[in-house]
Amino acid sequence: MIVNILDSKKTILNKFISEIRDEVIQKDSLRFRRNIERIGEVIAYEMSQTLIYEKVETKTPLGTKTIELPKKDIVLCSILRAGLPLHNGLLNYFDHAENAFISAYRKHISDQKFEIKVEYFASPSLEGKTLILADPMLATGQSLVSVFEALKKNGTPKEIHVACVIGSNDGIKLIEKHLPAETKLWIATVDNKLNEKGYIVPGLGDAGDLAYGVKL
């Protein structure tokens, strides 16, 4: 797996990351969602430099110009519900993409044990396409692995990109074992630890709850 950690460079991205972590600022759910969306836009720009391009002739009022544009073969798949703001940010740049949505959640067996349940799934064919799999939090990595396994029934992509906001080293190691070796991971920042419940530390809390309200 090729791992791209975007906060290794000093850019405006760091401001967005700081604000989604800040326990005072993140109380504003509208700003929280917008910051996740803006991080998605930064990830999309960085990712766009590695995609497959083709020459397209564009007609202007005064003539024609040949421009290299990304091939229109992208499927953008997000994990509900926390993935929606990140999905929107990516879609702002890859506006020609097809879209897929899948639900994955932790079903707790005990305080420290859980299994991943994948239920709702809507996706076009992935055969021979560029798959962008978006999930803001890469904690244990179990959700991404379960989602990837579920997606296999819809075809084999020609290339796979994973877009995340915050991850852990443990999560990265797990998806490296289960996703194809040529997969590219684009992640805004990485923290060192998981707590006993499998949440990223210092992380930011529950991204879905911060974006859309506390669930039952």
- Tally of DSSP β-strands: 12
Q: Structural class from helices and strands?
A: alpha/beta
Largest sheet: 8 strands, mixed
The assigned CATH architecture is: 3-Layer(aba) Sandwich
Number of domains: 1
Tell me the Rg in angstroms. 18 Å
CATH class: Alpha Beta
Number of helices: 6
Classify the helix fraction into a percent range. Answer: 25-40%
Strand content: 35-45%
Order of helices and strands: EHHEEEHEEEEHEHEEEH
Query: Averaged pLDDT, please?
Result: 92
Using the alpha-carbon principal axes, give the shape.
globular
- CATH topology annotation: Rossmann fold
Q: Give the N-to-C terminal Cα separation.
A: 36 Å
Stretches with pLDDT under 50, minimum 5 residues: none
Structure report:
The protein is an alpha/beta fold and 216 residues long. The protein has one domain (2-51, 70-198): Rossmann fold. The chain has six helices and twelve strands. Strands 1, 4, 5, 6, 7, 8, 9 and 10 form an eight-stranded mixed sheet that branches. Strands 2-3 form a two-stranded antiparallel sheet. Strands 11-12 form a two-stranded antiparallel sheet. A hairpin with a 5-residue loop joins strand 11 (193-194) and strand 12. Helix 1 (13-21) runs antiparallel to helix 2 (29-48) and helix 2 (29-48) packs across helix 3 (84-93). The longest helix has 20 residues, at 29-48. The chain starts with a strand and ends with a helix. The relative contact order is 0.18. The model has no long low-confidence stretch (mean pLDDT 92).
